[in-house]
Amino acid sequence: MNKLLWVFISIICIVAMFFAGSDSEYFSSRVFFSSSLIQAFSIYNIFSRGNEPYSLEKMFYLFSLFFFGVAPLLQSFDNSNFWYYRPLLEEEYFFMNILVIIIITLYKIVYFFFRRTIQRSKAEKKLNSFKVPDKITFINSLLLIILSLLAFVIVFAFNNFNIVPMLVRGGEIVADALSDVKADESPTKWLIVNNFVRPISIMCFLYYAVSKEKNILILVILGILALITCFPSAVPRFAAAAMYIPVVLVLFPLVRKKNVFSLIFVGSLLIVFPFLNIFRNFDDTNSKEFKLDFKMFTEQHFDSYQNFALLVSNEIITYGGQLLGVFLFWVPRSVWPEKPLGTGAFTAEKLNFFFSNVAANYFAEGYVNFGYLGIILFLIFLAYVTALIDKIYWESERKVTGDFFSVLYTISLGFLFFILRGDMLSSVAYLFGFLFAAVFVYKLTTLKINNEY
């Protein structure tokens, strides 16, 4: 069944791409066939390992399918030009496709090697000890509600006690609502609130949701608090994915069945993400325009491939300078004025883009730090970490109920996608904020409190 599924989806995808671009004056046979190979190889790996319905390896190939396969091919047909003074040349698309084919093939080989040979680390026992009691006490349930409510109040206060920015991310309405706040609050405080405080409400909900015996009223209260504190359209889309992928996997056992998660993820990227994009620039003029735009693959949201290509074409290498900023992401810029910009902003500055909030994918990070050697080093590190975590999670008896490590693992699925898209400075900051929030909630609510409830 897996074999038939990946073949069928590959054929549908490739045929759709062919008809989408066959009439384009920019159609290139070698770009089309190399992109088709990327798509087919990615789809094969998405629907392999049927006994593992979701994994970090599958997230890598889901990213590869859309950001290295589908989007660049459609952009080549459309001759898309985002931030640079010219579109990519046909030979640049072809060169980058060959480079991507090498990357995704090497990842598979190195991942397979580590998955077969790696010894599960000493951390495995500690990770598997993240257990949630079958029945959470009244006191701890109350603590979860208080923590979640406190997170909501803090985020609400930082949004000028205005509900609109809690529901919508961008646009004129939000700008007006926050006009006084952003002038007063430091970026560091905003990072702490958005990356650590905000996710606490989701973590409280997930902690309670994975317990075996649940009180529906408490679950609903925690769910409502989590939803209004972390409303999907009010946070970056990939942060929303990191928040709600665990919720979907925990609440709906069907999603944990063979291939269902991958199919839903593909559908979400084709339908849900375009819908959420409406709220990035929400104002009175477009508030009623709720149509989905499937041309999003030729728009700036998928600029990651082109920015990678431009870094390679212009041979921009910092010899580790960008990586230093990632390692020291927690140091405020007020303390370290020379702190490196995120690689997206750095790329924009170097190439004189007219916009600086651009994406630089994970392998672009490798190249900008150490050239082609950096791509290989970053690839090996990624394959090692994903193979290790997948092995720890899937090669031991795993039940979502009562297992908070399952929550941590499902959080990592969305964040891997976020990190792969880039840039690393912002995505790593988000990742550590979420993980700290998760561990904070777990440690606090598992404290042994003597009570008679």
UniProtKB/TrEMBL annotation:
What's this protein's name?
O-antigen polymerase
Q: Which UniProt keywords apply?
A: Membrane, Transmembrane, Transmembrane helix
Q: List the NCBIfam families hit by this protein, alphabetically.
A: glyco_rpt_poly (TIGR04370)
Tree of life domain: Bacteria
Q: Where are the transmembrane segments?
A: 30-47, 59-77, 93-114, 135-158, 190-209, 216-240, 260-279, 308-331, 370-389, 401-421, 427-445
